[in-house]
Amino acid sequence: MKSALITGITGQDGAYLAKLLLDKGYKVYGLIARRATSTTWRLQFLGIENEVELINGDLTDLPSIVRAITKAKPAEVYNLGAQSFVGTSWQQTVTTVQSTGVGVLHVLEAIRLTDLSIRFYQASSSEMFGLIQEPMQSESTPFYPRSPYGVSKLFGHWMTVNYRESFNLFACSGILFNHESPVRGIEFVTRKVTDAVARIKLGKQQELKLGNIDAKRDWGFAGDYVQAMWLMLQQDKADDYVVATGRTTTVRDMCKRAFEYVNLKYEDYVVIDPAFYRPAEVDILLGNPDKAKKVLGWEAKTSLNTLIEMMVEADLTRVKAEI
Ligand code: NDP
Ligand code: GDR
After folding, report:
1. Which residue from 178, 192, 195, 250 has its CB within 8 A of the most atoms of ligand 2, so it is best to mutate?
2. Which pLDDT tens digit goes with each residue over 235-256?
3. The whole model's pTM is what?
4. Can 163 be counted among the known catalytic residues?
5. Integer Cα distance of 98 and 314 in angstroms
6. Among the four residues 4, 157, 227, 283, which has the most C-beta atoms within 10 Å?
7. Which fold, 3-179+220-243?
8. CB 27: neighbour CB atoms within 10 A?
């Protein structure tokens, strides 16, 4: 039985990837950082909490990563753990750099130290493109990150490339554009919107405060995107890939569609609050997924409308279940 270790298994992608790997017959280990309250709700939502083996550890603590790898002896390591919220990366600059940036180096070093034959996936991000240099971003587009998060991801990306070139490590960097799901963290804009739509529809909230709704993002479904991660590690050669839908939409339009799904108008509820503006914004992202399609045979299957419907439905169910 093939085994895999996922850092960030309690996050959105970690949960979907764990489900995918379990369905493929893998033994799945997950690194779990100690928190005061339980963080396994996403694994519960997907019905796999008892199917995965969790190992205590933290990306900022190299010995714990070495111990986790020694215990799991995985054929594949997926490094999805990170402080992943761009907004917070200006509030917690150093911890963001430590987990999102240096954490990648810790995993690479742990693989090097344990000397096992391991294929490595790094969760890189379209935030590395930042201030856009080309209208459609591909693997060859220059980077210009606009947040401490983006800068940290760029460090992790180049470390991954460097370890591949220096030590012949099978290391891939997946440059993923925004992807969402019913288990997306509530602070990210899509889920903030779908949760508010459900609450407003059910009379539990009056308004929705947002920041820059003219920003544009290339949004896909997390369930589709974790397949691309797995495919990258099944190739003969390690490489880097952009994973995106190839379509971009404003936050405003996403909002409009989510409110329309429950027969409401977003203009009646959305209030612009400067508190949600960022010190430096990434105005537009639009990925070119041609290489992923050509080499991996991957393409995004879920439309934005289907994704929004899925998310609003899940939030309506959740809000109705609240006491
Ligand atoms: P989430 O924020 O949902 O999950 C992040 C995970 O990282 C959680 O399991 C969290 O644990 C864990 N984590 C945070 N800090 C540490 C630490 N110091 N040690 C160990 N684990 C830690 O992110 P997503 O699932 O959305 O994203 C997965 C990865 O992909 C991230 O690296 C993200 O930056 C990247 N990415 C995401 C994209 C997206 O659109 N979703 C796009 C491009 C890249 P806990 O539950 O305890 O907080
Ligand atoms: P992003 O996602 O920063 O692209 O990072 P987020 O959903 O937080 O923001 C998307 C865009 O919406 C604008 N926006 C708001 N954002 C939030 N969170 N809250 C608001 O109220 C709001 N109003 C407007 C933002 O300014 C931004 O332009 C996500 C994360 O998952 C990263 O980890 C990942 O690497 C990238 O996607 C690709």
Report:
1. 178
2. 999 999 999 999 999 999 999 9
3. 0.98
4. no
5. 34
6. 4
7. Rossmann fold (3.40.50)
8. 18
